[in-house]
Q: What sequence folds into this?
């Protein structure tokens, strides 16, 4: 009889017995043992010992790289800064540093109001801010009326003189936005970086690959920068730590002429919007966030 035990890297601790065709692996002894009298199987001692020893070695090598749950460190909660709107801060506790925050909503839903308020609050804290504008939609008069320090604001105009009615122009503007964002995140030193994608066609904004958002999230992680995106629909997926959905509830108007003078009903001035905000996703809390909504008023610059 000839037999040998082999252990491969793919199956450590699992011996394979190769024998000759005419040889028996475990020939019966001349005299039956007590184990055989009671019908118990009996394997060679050498095989049994090698099997258990290899299994213990394989188990120890695998568990050596596993960290027990009791030793896992708790990730600290990000620092929250004011968004400039008291009702919004009461809902979200502010905007998280070192995270990606999405603000989505249709046209006239309050996206720009929240952006200007966040920029004004950041510049009042003495921080430098950057707005990467995909469609050249930022209004300098509204920026000044919001109380933003222009000396601390960098405005990157990606869509200047580009008619976004054509898809190729929208793609070119989007390419400039992503390139500028990479440079800003790499340079550092900004308290808030906002990407305004609200006026881009939704089909163009959805072409941004998820790997790009993952790279942005990793670049801003462990930094004091608030990365804010404004869009019509959520496009960053699981890469965003906070997702807020905005919607306009009512339009506030007033007549432009003295009420004693009869005027047509359509002669009115838009003075503001009633905006509702809802938390769709938040990764700041350990427990899932229940749906919550708030309402705040946005005033136009000329309404005082």
A:
């Amino acid at each position: 009889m000839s037999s040998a035990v082999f252990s491969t890297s793919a199956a450590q601790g699992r011996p394979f017995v190769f024998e000759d065709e005419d040889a028996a692996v475990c020939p019966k002894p001349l005299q039956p043992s007590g184990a055989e009298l009671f019908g118990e199987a009996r394997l060679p001692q050498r095989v049994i010992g090698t099997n258990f020893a290899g299994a213990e070695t394989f188990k120890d090598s695998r568990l050596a790289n596993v960290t027990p749950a009791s030793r896992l460190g708790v990730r600290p909660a990000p620092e929250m800064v004011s968004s400039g709107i008291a009702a919004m801060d009461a809902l979200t506790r502010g905007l998280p540093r070192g995270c990606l925050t999405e603000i989505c909503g249709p046209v006239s839903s309050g996206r720009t109001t929240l952006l200007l308020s966040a920029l004004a609050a950041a510049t009042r804290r003495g921080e430098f801010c950057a707005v990467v504008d995909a469609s050249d939609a930022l209004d300098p008069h509204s920026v000044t009326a919001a109380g933003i320090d222009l000396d601390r604001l960098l405005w990157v105009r990606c869509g200047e003189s580009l008619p976004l009615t054509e898809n190729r122009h929208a793609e070119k503007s989007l390419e400039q936005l992503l390139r500028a964002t990479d440079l800003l995140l790499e340079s550092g030193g900004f308290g808030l970086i906002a990407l305004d994608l609200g006026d881009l066609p939704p089909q163009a904004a959805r072409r941004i690959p998820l790997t790009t958002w993952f790279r942005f999230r990793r670049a801003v992680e462990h930094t004091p920068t608030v990365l804010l995106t404004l869009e019509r629909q959520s496009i960053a997926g699981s890469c965003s730590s906070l997702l807020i959905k905005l919607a306009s509830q009512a339009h506030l108007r007033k007549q432009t002429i003295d009420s004693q003078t009869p005027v047509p009903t359509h002669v009115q001035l838009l003075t503001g919007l009633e905006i509702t905000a809802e938390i769709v996703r938040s990764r700041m809390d350990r427990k899932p966030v229940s749906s919550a909504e708030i309402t705040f008023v946005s005033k136009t610059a000329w309404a005082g």
Summary: Residues 167-187 form the longest helix (21 residues). Confidence is low (pLDDT under 50) at residues 1-27, 34-41, 43-50, 286-290. Helices lie at 34-37, 45-63, 86-92, 111-124, 140-145, 167-187, 202-205, 210-220.
